[in-house]
Design goal:
By secondary structure, the chain is an alpha+beta fold. The protein has two domains: 279 residues, Aminopeptidase; 155 residues, Alpha-Beta Plaits (2-Layer Sandwich). The strands form four sheets. Strands 1, 2, 3, 6, 7, 8, 15, 16 and 17 form a nine-stranded mixed beta sheet that branches. A four-stranded antiparallel beta sheet has the order 11-13-9-14. Bound molecules: ligand BES and manganese (II) ion. Manganese (II) ion binds next to helix 3.
Length: 454
């Protein structure tokens, strides 16, 4: 087996290669970065060409970020075809960083930059695994296609339309998605469940004009107070969601899956201190942390805008407020039903004289993948061989919209081999990727392809 451990110079080269990828500020949500996102797509295409893949191309659509596609189908019909998926777009980089978000820096065995783990480091390891096999053997043990998107962090409209189109470039037996986490350092992990999501905003309007809070306070409705009333009427102080019918259809995890979670190494106090970094956990009574974050739906507020938030004081009754919210969904729920339930609940709890409306932006269905197939089994085996521990099966609370779409439109399972770590600061300042996971990830992917081809 090829191991990165043994190849010191190669490690340096790999780090340099990843740095070049991380320097491109491909923030998909920010219009001012549109050209950077495109440049990043071009960079991915070039990496795919350098790895020996064929037909490398950008798939473009008006007003959307490019998809990057490439293939190598030389293994022949008798061998399986894998569809590698990842995303080259990243979240915005606001907040306080130790070193700038787009100037990658290596410290204590980690590389720090926006997108390091989510998801450029993991896309990079997929490409480098293929490159390594190509260099060594001049061919691959299986057929591969790559589909790397630039809109995952904003809901992935472009890829959704492409996957639904039935394009021949998508013909594959399984998808390999590297965009999740290892449960703990050195513990090989397959993610077999993701939550879905509905994201949108609640618009609240209490009148046609802002008012003097002395002259009218006590008699006039206040849009921000109304927004707060609405939000607190949707979820109680114990974390129970009060949207009527919301959790009624939730399918709980099986006894076997529950038992597997109970065997995972987990220390709640450490989780609170090192990851959550607060003083107490919250959430629905009667469910432990795994169930709350993996198998129960949520309602979160992401931001509230309105009224006076500048320096100093201004005595005003605001007439408008905007609340950014999302719901995470689990097996048994659907985007359509949850969206309708929230929209109706917002209307129902809206105080008098106030108009409130939920406007959805995007959604993704929850997904659970079956584990009784060769693609999952060989993946677990490859990771076990490389990392020297038995592979664990977990779910993740996050969402990767494409996984449900691959299942629905292509009928293929997704193998979610994750190499991020729980403390990699995804979507937060000081995002990092553990270099040992970059190197181990390449080795595991190389081994996976070898096992699938034999
Ligand atoms: N890679 C994450 C999702 C993730 C994080 C899965 C940790 C497993 C463990 C992905 O890039 C992401 O953040 N997705 C968004 C999707 C949304 C914008 C549709 C999410 O979950 O918020
Ligand atoms: Mn991601």
């Amino acid at each position: 087996m090829l191991t990165c451990e043994a190849m010191a110079e190669t490690q340096e080269q790999l780090i340099e290669g990843l740095k070049a990828f991380l320097r491109i500020p491909s923030v998909s949500t920010a219009p001012k970065h549109t050209a950077d996102v495109r440049r990043c797509a071009e960079h991915v295409r070039e990496m795919l060409v350098a790895a020996g893949l064929q037909n490398a191309q950008l798939i473009e659509a008006e007003g959307q970020h490019p998809l990057v596609y490439a293939e190598w189908l030389g293994a022949g019909e008798g061998k399986p075809t894998l569809l590698f998926y990842g995303h080259y777009d990243v979240q915005p980089a606001d907040g306080e960083w130790v070193t700038p978000a787009f100037e990658p820096s290596v410290r204590d065995g980690n590389i720090y930059a926006r997108g390091a783990a989510d998801d450029k480091g993991q896309v990079f390891l997929q490409i480098k695994a293929v490159e390594r096999l190509m260099e060594r053997d001049g061919k691959l043990p299986v057929n591969v296609r790559f589909l790397i998107e630039g809109e995952e962090e904003v809901g992935g409209e472009h890829i959704e339309a492409f996957v639904a189109s039935g394009d021949a470039r998508l013909k594959a037996d399984a998808a390999v998605v590297c965009d999740t986490e290892m449960f703990a350092p050195g513990l090989p992990t397959l993610c077999v469940g993701l939550r879905g999501i509905v994201y949108g905003e609640i618009l609240v309007k209490s009148g046609d004009t802002d008012l003097h809070s002395g002259m009218y306070g006590g008699a006039a409705p206040n849009a921000i107070m109304a927004a707060c009333e609405i939000v607190t009427a949707l979820k109680d102080r114990d974390g129970r969601i009060l949207i009527p019918g919301f959790a009624d259809s939730v399918i709980p995890p099986s006894a076997a899956e529950r038992a597997a979670w109970d065997r995972l190494p987990f220390n709640e106090a450490e989780y609170l201190e090192k990851e959550v970094k607060s003083t107490a956990l919250t959430g629905e009574p009667g469910y432990d942390v795994f169930e709350r974050t993996w198998a129960r739906p949520t309602l979160e507020v992401h931001g509230i805008r309105g009224g006076f938030t500048g320096e100093g004081a201004k005595t005003v009754i605001p007439c408008e407020a905007l609340v950014k919210v999302s719901m995470r969904l689990v097996a048994g729920q659907t985007v359509e039903v949850a969206t309708r339930q929230l929209a109706e609940a917002v209307k129902a709890v809206c105080p008098k004289a106030v108009q409130a409306e939920f406007r959805p932006f995007h959604g993704a269905e929850p997904s659970l993948v079956r584990t009784d197939n060769v693609f999952i089994e060989k993946s677990a085996q490859a990771m076990q061989e490389v990392f020297g521990k038995e592979t664990v099966y977990i779910r993740s609370g996050g969402s990767i919209p494409i996984v449900g779409l691959f299942e629905r439109h292509l009928g293929i399972p997704s193998v979610m081999m994750g190499f991020g770590l729980p403390d990699d600061n995804l979507h937060a300042p000081n995002e990092k990727f553990h270099l040992a996971n970059l190197f181990g990830g390449i080795d595991a992917m190389v081994r996976y392809l070898e096992l699938l081809g034999s």
